C-alpha cells in the first residue's frame, strides 16, 4: 500500500500549507522516482501565490509548488537505461506530448500539451518523492552540489536565450534587467565567448552583483532622461560601437525600445522578460536594420545539459545566485519572505524533506 509524504501546497491564492499526499508509484517503465534534495523558488511561484494565475494558467485546485529541483534517484522503471539508483540529478520539469507538431518539429518547449511542474493543473516538486521520465534528468557530477543542481533550471533559461541569439566569441551583448534571469543570461553570454556584456538596470545593488556574472560594464538607466541618452550611454561603454545582441529580461517598454535602437544592423534581439501585453515598438528600425526578433520560452533539447556543463566546468558560478536558504518545514516562511522582500532576494533554496 502506498504511503504518504509531505507536500508544500498552494491551496488557493494567498494561502500555502503543508499537506499529506500519496507517495507516487512508477507506472511507466521509462520513469524514475527521485528523492528531491533542493528546490529553488521561482518568480512564477510567487506570482501564483500572490495572484492565483499567470496569463491563461489559472489555479483552480490546490497545487504542489516548486519546479527548480535536484535530487537522488531512488527507484527506476524496468526499461530505464539512462540513469540508475544513486545517481544525483537535475530535474527538467516540463514534459511535452510526443504527438504535438511542436514536439515533432524539435521545439518541445512550445508543446501546447506540456505538463510543466507547478503550472496549473500540474503538481510541482516540493515533496519528498517526484516522478520524472529518464530522458528529462541530467546527471550531476560529484563536485556539483544539489544547490547548484537546483539552479540548473534558471540557468537553462539563459542558455536557451543565448543559443537563440547565436551568442559566440567576440560578440557584444547588452542585457536589460539584472534579476535572476538577467544574471544567468549575461553569465552565459560571457561563457559563450562574448567580448562585452553590458547590464542595464535601475537598482545599483543589482548592478553591483553583475560583476560576479560576466559583466564588463554596467549602466544605471535612472541616470538618463530619454531612450536616446541611454542608447548613447550603451555605445559609450562599447567604445562607440553597437552591440550585435540585445536580450531583454525585463518586459519594460523603455528597455525594449532602447534595445532595438541600440542594436547594430543585422543584430539579434531576444525577448525573455514578460511585461505588458502591448508596447509601443520602433518597428521601422527592424526592417531598416534587418534585425532578428526572437521570443524565448523556457528551454529545449540540450539546454539543461549545457547548463550542467557550464556549472561543472566552472564557467558559470550559480552559487553566487543563492542569497537565502530554508529548511523544508520553513517552506511557508520562505515563500512569505520572497513575496515580502523581493528586492533582497536573488535565489532562495528550500531543502527537501529527509
From TrEMBL:
UniProt keyword terms in alphabetical order: Metal-binding, NAD, Oxidoreductase, Zinc
GO biological process: sorbitol catabolic process
CDD domains recorded: sorbitol_DH
Enoyl reductase (ER) domain mapped to chain residues: 14-350
Needed co-factor(s): Zn(2+)
InterPro entries tied to this protein: ADH-like_C (IPR013149), ADH-like_N (IPR013154), ADH_Zn_CS (IPR002328), ER (IPR020843), GroES-like_sf (IPR011032), NAD(P)-bd_dom_sf (IPR036291), SDH-like (IPR045306)
Gene3D superfamilies: Medium-chain alcohol dehydrogenases, catalytic domain, NAD(P)-binding Rossmann-like Domain
Superkingdom of origin organism: Eukaryota
Any one Gene Ontology molecular-function term assigned to this protein's record: L-iditol 2-dehydrogenase (NAD+) activity
Self-association state and partner proteins as the record states: Homotetramer.
Family: Belongs to the zinc-containing alcohol dehydrogenase family.
Protein name, per record: WGS project CCBQ000000000 data, contig 00099
Taxonomic classification: Eukaryota, Fungi, Dikarya, Ascomycota, Saccharomycotina
Amino acid at each position: 500500500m502506498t504511503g504518504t509524504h509531505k507536500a508544500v501546497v498552494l491551496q488557493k491564492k494567498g494561502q500555502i500549507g503543508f499537506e499529506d499526499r500519496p507517495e507516487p508509484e512508477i507506472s511507466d517503465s521509462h520513469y524514475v522516482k527521485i528523492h528531491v534534495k533542493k528546490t529553488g523558488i521561482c518568480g512564477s511561484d510567487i506570482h501564483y501565490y500572490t495572484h492565483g494565475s499567470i496569463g491563461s494558467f489559472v489555479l483552480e485546485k490546490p497545487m504542489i509548488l516548486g519546479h527548480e529541483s535536484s535530487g537522488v534517484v531512488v527507484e527506476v522503471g524496468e526499461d530505464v537505461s539512462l540513469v540508475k539508483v544513486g545517481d544525483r540529478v537535475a530535474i527538467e520539469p516540463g514534459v511535452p506530448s510526443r504527438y504535438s507538431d511542436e514536439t515533432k518539429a524539435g521545439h518541445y518547449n512550445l508543446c501546447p500539451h506540456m505538463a510543466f511542474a507547478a503550472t496549473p493543473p500540474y503538481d510541482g516538486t516540493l515533496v519528498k518523492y517526484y516522478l520524472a521520465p529518464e530522458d528529462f534528468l541530467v546527471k550531476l557530477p560529484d563536485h556539483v552540489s544539489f544547490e547548484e543542481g537546483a539552479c540548473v533550471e534558471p540557468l537553462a533559461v539563459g542558455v536557451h536565450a543565448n543559443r537563440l541569439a547565436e551568442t559566440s566569441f567576440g560578440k557584444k551583448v547588452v542585457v536589460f534587467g539584472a534579476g535572476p534571469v538577467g544574471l544567468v543570461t549575461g553569465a552565459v553570454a560571457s561563457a559563450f565567448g562574448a567580448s562585452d556584456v553590458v547590464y542595464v538596470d535601475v537598482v545599483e545593488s543589482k548592478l553591483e552583483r553583475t560583476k560576479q556574472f560576466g559583466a564588463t560594464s554596467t549602466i544605471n538607466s535612472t541616470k538618463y532622461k530619454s531612450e536616446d541618452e541611454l542608447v548613447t550611454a550603451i555605445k559609450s561603454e562599447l567604445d562607440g560601437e553597437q552591440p550585435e545582441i540585445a536580450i531583454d529580461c525585463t518586459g519594460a517598454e523603455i528597455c525594449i525600445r532602447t534595445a532595438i535602437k541600440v542594436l547594430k544592423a543585422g543584430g539579434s534581439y531576444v525577448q525573455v522578460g514578460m511585461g505588458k501585453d502591448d508596447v509601443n515598438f520602433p518597428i521601422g528600425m527592424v526592417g531598416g536594420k534587418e534585425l532578428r526578433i526572437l521570443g524565448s520560452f523556457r528551454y529545449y533539447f540540450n539546454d539543461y545539459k549545457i547548463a550542467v556543463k557550464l556549472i561543472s566546468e566552472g564557467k558559470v558560478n550559480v552559487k553566487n545566485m543563492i542569497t537565502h536558504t530554508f529548511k523544508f518545514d520553513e517552506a511557508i516562511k520562505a515563500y512569505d519572505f520572497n513575496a515580502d522582500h523581493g528586492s533582497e532576494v536573488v535565489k532562495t533554496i528550500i531543502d527537501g524533506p529527509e
